[in-house]
Amino acid sequence: MDIKSKVGLIGAGVMGEALISALVTHGLNPDLITISEKRLDRVNELTGRYSIKSSELAENVSTAQVLLLVVKPQDLAAVLEEVKTHINPETLVITFAAGKSISFISNGIGKSNPIVRVMPNSPILLGAGMSAISCSKNVTDEQRDFVRGFLGAAGKTIEVDESLQDAVTATSGSGPAYFFAFVEAMVSGAMELGLSEKDATALTIQTIIGAAKMLEQSGQTAAVLRENVTSPNGTTAAALTSFTNGGLEQLVTKAMKAAHDRAQELA
After folding, report:
1. Beta strands, E only, the chain
2. What's the mean pLDDT in 240-265?
3. Among 6, 104, 123, 198, whose Cα sits 20 to 30 Å from the Cα of 189?
């Protein structure tokens, strides 16, 4: 499988568009990308923006060498029922539906297609995503490389055993929202100290961006970087002590466990 493969997408929402962009960035000819979408205005928007094609679901599925399922988890069973009579048994199926297992896809199709399950996160929309993939046993190295290749055009990708996908959901899948909530809390705290909302927001966002770049580029662990900016008995130490006394680590662990458990309930 290479960048000459015909790719069909079912679902053309925000995530679907991000994946189209990743495929094109990866080097796939837009002529090889076909979407199936009920909203005509959205079809016209995406075909005009990316020079891709559109077709009815049955035609798209029957001709695709790679099929991307970018639909909501609650809609997936109905979609699989609709495509199962049209899909070729050798087509690589890639699912982005949170909580839905490889076996769920396989049973829904009723065929032994190679399947890749992906848990992306929202920064993939900016080319800064974090995706984790899990592959069925019949996925070839070539197919695996194709998936990692185009996802890599929109961020970073790792491969995990499927049993860990719910842990991935609780970490990177839901993770951006944790940081958004922390930013909200910091902005609120800064305003309590007298800063305007505008200045509090600017200070907090740039601090988060700068800290993230330090983590990415320094080669140091978070623990080392934290220690480097924490003077004994200084202002940072006072704040971190407050975090510790408030049970920050336990609270974060509890929150991630809640996300993990909810992902299992949605399976």
Report:
1. 7-10, 33-36, 53-54, 66-69, 92-95, 115-119, 129-135, 155-159
2. 95
3. 123
Distances (CA, A) of 262 to 13, 108, 258: 24, 22, 6
Mean pLDDT of the chain: 95
For the chain, how far is it from start to end, CA to CA, in angstroms?
Answer: 30
Domains of the chain (ranges plus CATH)? 7-168 (3.40.50.720), 173-266 (1.10.3730.10)
What is each CA distance from 56 to 34, 104, 141, 251, in whole angstroms? Answer: 10, 24, 31, 48
* Res. 259: pLDDT tops 90: yes
Task: State the number of CA atoms in the 13 A half-sphere of 86 facing the CB.
Answer: 17
- Number of Cβ within a 10 Å radius of residue 35: 25
pLDDT tens-place string over residues 179-220: 999 999 999 999 999 999 999 999 999 999 999 999 999 999
> What is the C-alpha separation between 11 and 124, in angstroms, rounded?
16
**Is 206 exposed, middle or buried (CB count within 10 Å of its CB: 0-12, 13-18, 19+)?**
exposed
- pLDDT of res. 1: 59
Contact 67, 8 (CB under 8 A): yes
**50 dihedral zone (left: phi>0; alpha: psi -120 to 50; beta):** alpha
Does residue 3 carry a pLDDT above 70? no
CA distance 100 to 108: 11
As a whole number of angstroms, the distance between CA 23 and CA 28 comes to 6
Tell me: pLDDT of 39 over 70: yes
Sequence-distant (6+) residues with CB within 8 A of 104 are: 76, 267
